[in-house]
């Protein structure tokens, strides 16, 4: 795995995504989702909102790394906040 150059933030990010997917699977099996409309301009399920939140988080990380001098943990905190907002009210 040396060729992949894993860093701690990268490993934590992918571990968090894995935990999110596992948690969403368990939640879906215990309480099936009903599609709803939030502040996003479309009707979404729980999985749709997770995907949109994760995709936006990836773009936010790229934006912070490419445009600013902020540390990566700032992007991670912003992404976590955005993901919570999208999952709750999206």
Outline of this structure?
By secondary structure, the chain is mostly helical.
Walk me through the structure.
It contains 3 helices and 2 strands. With 90 residues, it is mainly alpha-helical. It has a domain at 45-90. The chain has a two-stranded antiparallel ribbon. Strand 1 (36-37) and strand 2 form a beta hairpin. The radius of gyration is 15 Å and the shape is globular.
**Low-confidence spans:** none
Shape summary:
globular
Average the pLDDT over all residues and give the rounded result.
87
Largest sheet: 2 strands, antiparallel
List the helices and strands and how they pair.
Blueprint: H1 8-30, E1 36-37, E2 43-44, H2 46-67, H3 72-89
Helix pairs in contact: 2-3
Defining key terms:
mainly alpha; two-stranded antiparallel sheet; 3 helices; 4% strand
């Amino acid at each position: 795995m040396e060729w992949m150059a894993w860093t701690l933030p990268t490993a934590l990010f992918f571990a968090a995504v894995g935990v999110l997917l596992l948690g969403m699977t368990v939640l879906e099996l215990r309480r099936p989702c009903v599609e709803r409309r939030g502040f996003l301009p479309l009707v979404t399920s729980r999985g749709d909102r997770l995907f949109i939140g994760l995709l936006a988080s990836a773009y936010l990380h790229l934006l912070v790394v490419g445009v600013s001098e902020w540390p990566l943990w700032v992007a991670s905190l912003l992404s976590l906040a955005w993901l919570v907002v999208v999952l709750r009210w999206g």
